[in-house]
Amino acid sequence: MTKNIKYLTRNAKLVCAADFFWNLGRTFPHAILTIFLLEQGFDLVRIATLQSVFMIVAMVTEFPSGIWADLFGRKQIYMAAVVTLFCSYLLIGFFSDHFIVILFAYVLYGLSVALKSGTLEAEVVLEFEKEQRDIKAYSVASSYVMSISSIAGGLLGSLFYEKMHSYMYAISLMLFVLAFLMAALCVFSQTSGQKEREQRHLRDELKVGFCVLKSSKPLLYMILLFASATLFVQPFFQYWQVLYQQGGIPVRYFGIIYVAFQACNLVGTMIYNRMKMSNKKIMIFVWLIAIIFAFSMINTQLALFLLPVSVILFYVFYQHLDVLQKKVAPKQFMSSFFSLVGTSENIASIVSLFIMATCIEYVGITYAYIILFFMFSVYCFFLCFFMFVFLFVFFFNDTATTEIYTILFVGSVRCV
């Protein structure tokens, strides 16, 4: 990790610091959020309503927020996202007596997550490309930062809640201030392309952006890959508690298990960082995820041990996917593309949860996991195969990035 941090530019280090404080503050109350809302007098139905509002707002505003970032400045939109989250947590922590207030707070929460997507991260990618640095170093360092901050936030929040209760949110607010200051210190050079695009309108950006996607199969495959990944992500995040509870694990250990799963992200990132990962190897990893967990059919108790193994393998795959995304993202519409990927994930997440819930009803939790993981492996394998065949040079070197940009540029010119 230290080696990756040293390789980063000044701006990249500041972005990692901003993301660390942002995510630490965001996850600080997460371990006890449901308990906190229950103590405030909200029932499970209202809590589910809040989560639904958050997802809907994030899904609807994510793609437009990416376009705004490309048009008006990614740094400014990032800072606006931090301010919006500050307001949201202020309402949740200190004005939670009324449901309407909390509902509005969750609207702001969803908006803030959407605004942040593809902002300073896109600036770092462009800076690395300009200086001909390996984007893998930033992607790995960013993954470490987010994992460590999630673990620290979950642990500290669960420890401090009993003594601090709603005042925990004051700590989150201070961390958001630090994130804002770190972002304010970033100084990115403005390209001539960005200066030209400032003269365009939102409608023009939508038209050109969709034309670029239509003219570039790699980008479409990338969006579909991230959407397919939700077949693993959503069942894992939303139902692992059910799996472990049915496996006889007491609820009091769930906090430790939550931290252990966050550590799986770290382990997966370490494996990816140390291995010379080719696209052929990553396709093997995709199949191993489902095949290893399929041994749960022998004994359902095995699922409790095999799920963390599958999660580690998934994070190796997802880290590689994240690096590829940064390499193929169009320079002119980078924030828009990152936000479009996030929107596709949000939509696919709803579908994935519906499929998982249906499978649980008919075959039980363990076999539902097996079915969803095999669906994930099959879809991702074929999408990877077609994308890498289309860009076969990726198997040998990374110079395909230049060719992709040529394809994108030609496509955008034709659309305009």
If helices are DSSP runs of H or I spanning 4 or more residues, what is the number of helices? 18
Uncertain stretches of 5 or more adjacent residues: 192-200, 392-416
Number of strands: 0
Derived structural class? mainly alpha
Please state roughly what percent of the residues sit in beta strands, choosing from under 5%, 5-15%, 15-25%, 25-35%, 35-45% or over 45%: under 5%
> What's the helix-strand series?
HHHHHHHHHHHHHHHHHH
How confident overall, as mean pLDDT?
A: 79
Written account of the structure:
The chain has 416 residues and is mainly α. The protein has 18 helices and no strands. Helix 2 (10-27) packs antiparallel against helix 9 and helix 12 (217-246) packs parallel to helix 16. The longest helix is centred in the middle third of the chain and has 30 residues, at 135-164. The radius of gyration is 21 Å and the shape is globular. The N and C termini lie far apart (43 Å). The model is unreliable at 192-200 and 392-416 (pLDDT under 50).
